[in-house]
Amino acid sequence: MGKRIRDIRWISVWCRRFTVDFGEVFVPSNIEVPKPRVLPEFKRLAHGLRSDNISILDAKTFYIPNLHYDGNGPDAYFWVGNGSEPTSFGIKVPNEMGSLDPLRSYQGEDIEIQLPGSLTVYDIDWMSVWCVQYRLNFGHVMIPKDLDVPPALGQTKISPPWWYNPTSTTPRTMLPTNCREYLDKRLQVRWKLEDDSVVITLSAKIKEDQLEVMSQ
């Protein structure tokens, strides 16, 4: 497509053959597109924990570059929670492999981790490396309240679209998840982020008599 959301003023489902507009959405000129947010590095407190600046890529995903940790904590995990600083009242976050095993050592690796379940960055105040057994914080980063990051895949809470066939052999995870419906659910706008661009897909539902007109 080669365009960014700021390069367009409207989106339409348009029939070129019959020059019919099935519906349109206008894009405000001052629209602010959600984007990743860069945070400070981990606070350095114990076990050689350090990193470069941490990024929140979307509402569930953290990118931690140049991560160092000696791996000697007996019961350490990525840990998130609420409050002014890390406490034992937190939630374990799976490592970059999706495992909840105690953390191994890291020697300057770049990793991504995702918040579990329905938890998002808007629900937490901090992320840390925390030893559950000894209730020790090895280092943490605070999460700002003014985030405006992209939604994560599967985060939008919409009912299955009208074109979804429950008997299909296509896995449900292959269906688009970033989606909005307009015009009484007759127009569906789906999008995904690719680098600094937004790829947009439109789907429309038309009446049977419109199909008859177009088939003539």
From TrEMBL:
* UniProt keyword Iron, yes or no: no
Ranges that cross the membrane: none
The organism's place on the tree of life at top rank: Eukaryota
Q: Which residues form a coiled coil?
A: none
Under the heading InterPro entries, the entry gives: DM13_domain, Spindle_Org/Thrombomodulin
Q: Which Pfam families match?
A: DM13
Q: Where is the DM13 domain?
A: 1-28, 40-144
Provide the alphabetized UniProt keywords.
Answer: Repeat
The name of this protein is DM13 domain-containing protein
